[in-house]
Amino acid sequence: MNNKTFTLLSPALAPLLALALSAPAQAQVEIQWWHSMTAVNGEWVNDLARDFNASQKDYKIIPTYKGTYDESMTGAIAAFRAGNAPHILQVFEVGTATMMASKGAIIPVGQVMKDAGIKFDPAAYVPAVAGYYTAPNGQMLSFPFNSSTTIFYYNKDAFKAAGLDADKPPTTWPEVVLAAAKLKASGHKCPFTTAWQGWTQLESFSAWHNVEFATQRNGLAGLNARMKVDSPLHQRHIENLANMSKQGLFVYKGRGNVPEASFVSGECAMINTSSGFYGNVAKNAKFGYGLAALPYYPDVPGAPQNTVIGGASLWVLSGKKPAEYKGVAAFFNYLSSPEVQSASHKRTGYLPITTAAYQLTEKSGFYKEKPGTDVAVTQMIRKTTDKSRGIRLGNYVQIRAIEDEELEQVWGGKKTAKEALASIVKRGNELLERFEKANKS
Amino acid sequence: MEKRVVFRSGWLPWALLAPQAIVIAVFFFWPAGQALVQSLQQSDAFGTSVSWVGLENFQNLWNDETYLASFKTTAIFSILVAVCGISLALLLAVFADRVVRGATVYKTLLIWPYAVAPAVAGVLWLFMFSPSIGIVAYGLEAMGVDWNHLLNGGQAMTLVVAAAVWKQISYNFLFFLAGLASIPKSLIEAAAIDGARPWRRFWTIQFPLLTPTTFFLLVINMVYAFFDTFAIIDASTQGGPGKDTSILVYRVYYDGFKALDLGGSAAQSVVLMVIVVALTVLQFKFVEKKVNY
């Protein structure tokens, strides 16, 4: 009876057995990639992994969505402590200093590429992007992936209705105030708002006007950086916004990217926010819209300079096998090719992070076809100064929260611009001192 | 008269206690011990370099004005949540107890919110009160109330208290309803025959007999307001505007899980633990004396 069953089954089993036996010969090295991309951008990440996996046989990238940026970072940290961290982790720009300070937990990307024998030239990257992820000693620590910057969006239909020239967005802050007044006079309840108030109105604002946000080259040069946002120019700007708020020209719509919804719905006519907001506007706005460079104060020497980056980069975590790191290097090499970069840029609205990718995109005529998509790029691809290269501070997540809290008190009329900025400096410095102490090596 | 069961075996009572004791040890004493240890340390996010800092984390808290301010915020929030939650639930329970027709429907509907996760409750109320799109905010604006909890601290507090109370009312309601059901009908009927009106019957008979329930709920609601509400705050106001709704437990959550400052967060949770233990002891010492069992 037993024998009979066996003979009956064996033809069916044979191919399976053969498969099982041959499998080790061509076993793929699996590489875990944790990310925080959702919806359209989540599909993009999956497509990148699929295309890379199809392009070669040795490695298999497995992308996994692990929640929002801070959730996936916390998750990876817990996993690291438990000894099963992913190979690649996508970390947002505010987490950069934390990752950099965790020397035992990460392997610099430059090192990973060198060990794998793959040529890797940091100079190929847009300076403002590469500079951000590079250690003071010149080594690139993480792989730039999805970088964005802050730009200005406006509602062309609302501009027309208010008697403004829809093809001439305001380029300076005084012009923004004038445009907002006209919009209000035409019955608009929310002429101007801003998302990510700390990032747009303090951080980007500083770089754009070539003033320090923090000492030590905004924290890029060392952990002993201290806040500098109480300068006369910062005060002038926040006072200006506070006055606009009092007159109903600027309407506060909340923290983070929450205010973006009020632009897409048509409620607010002008907004400062991330270039990564473009995809949402292009898909959902039911009115004519325009993209423009950030406004500036024309009397400030050196303005406009360049804006700083947001978005995220890919970090390689330690404690894995050499063969797996080779796979990581191969994947990064694939991601850096101008074709892949350019396609990603066109698809997502994130910045092209190498100069070659930018040139390729320009040649393809994309910027002419979709006017405004080059605003973010031209704001970024400039020669940077020590004050504008980027902002990288320890305990940055908390500093952002402090910026939110203090600015809210200005908009609410509880504090003057001067008091709030002084408080940001004081509270921020306490956190910076603590971070410096906790991460002394 | 004292009821007492005597075990002949020496190990059996311990064995019967063991499951509960183990649960408490694993889910309370062990984490609490970890928090105590971590509160004396500072480390980087990945825990690759840990250093002992003594009481420095506590000193940092002490020197942080915003932390001291959040004690006041927490006190206001907890008292509002406990008082509103208990009194509203009592009111509803008394009415639901009297309903003759369709009582089950009322009861089910009132118990429903308890099944909603705190974060969802936060989002729900946020939507209703969201300036310019929320249905309640819209109604308020029509009545001439300028609703903007993004900048008005008092309104933000109202919003989080409402969400927290709404979430807890079902729990309180259930206990009050059970308490009311256990009061012998004969007592109330006797009072009615003596000519006591419903209001008087409630204050002289039902309420005194409900004091054990009320006391129990007071303790539970305080603990709820202190520990269980961070998800509501996180989903609705994130502690803003400024720090106007930043209660102690929200800061523990934020500093630990978002900002990855584990030492500071642990120190805060130790402080919180001390406060709640002290409050509970106080409640048992003083308030319990007024309870009729």
Topology:
The complex is a heterodimer of chains A (441) and B (293).
Chain A: H1 2-22, E1 29-35, H2 39-55, E2 59-65, H3 69-81, E3 88-92, H4 96-101, E4 106-107, H5 109-115, H6 127-132, E5 143-155, H7 156-161, H8 173-185, E6 190-194, H9 197-208, H10 215-218, H11 232-246, H12 260-264, E7 268-274, H13 278-284, E8 289-292, E9 309-317, H14 322-335, H15 338-348, H16 355-363, H17 366-369, H18 375-380, H19 396-411, H20 417-438
Parallel strand pairs in A: 1-2, 1-3, 6-7
Antiparallel strand pairs in A: 3-9, 4-9, 5-7, 5-8, 5-9
Chain B: H1 12-38, E1 41-43, E2 50-52, H2 56-63, H3 65-98, H4 103-111, H5 118-129, H6 135-142, H7 153-181, H8 185-193, H9 198-227, H10 230-236, H11 248-258, H12 262-286
Antiparallel strand pairs in B: 1-2
Helix pairs in contact in B: 1-12, 2-12, 3-7, 3-9, 5-7, 5-10, 7-9, 8-9, 9-12, 10-11, 11-12
How would you sum up this structure, described in words?
The complex is a heterodimer of chains A (441) and B (293). Chain A is α/β, with parallel strands linked by helices and 441 residues long. Chain A folds into two domains: 21-147 and 310-369, Periplasmic binding protein-like II (D-Maltodextrin-Binding Protein, domain 2); 149-308 and 392-438, Periplasmic binding protein-like II (D-Maltodextrin-Binding Protein, domain 2, 3-Layer(aba) Sandwich). Chain A is built from 20 helices and nine strands. In chain A, helix 15 (338-348) packs across helix 16. The longest helix of chain A has 22 residues, at 417-438. Chain A is globular. Chain B has a single domain (67-290), classed as MetI-like fold. Chain B is built from twelve helices and two strands; from the N terminus they run H-E-E-H-H-H-H-H-H-H-H-H-H-H. A two-stranded antiparallel ribbon of chain B has the order 1-2. In chain B, helix 3 runs antiparallel to helix 9 and helix 9 (198-227) packs antiparallel against helix 12. The mean pLDDT of chain B is 88. Classes of the chains: A alpha/beta (441), B mainly alpha (293). The interface between A and B is large, with 39 and 33 residues.
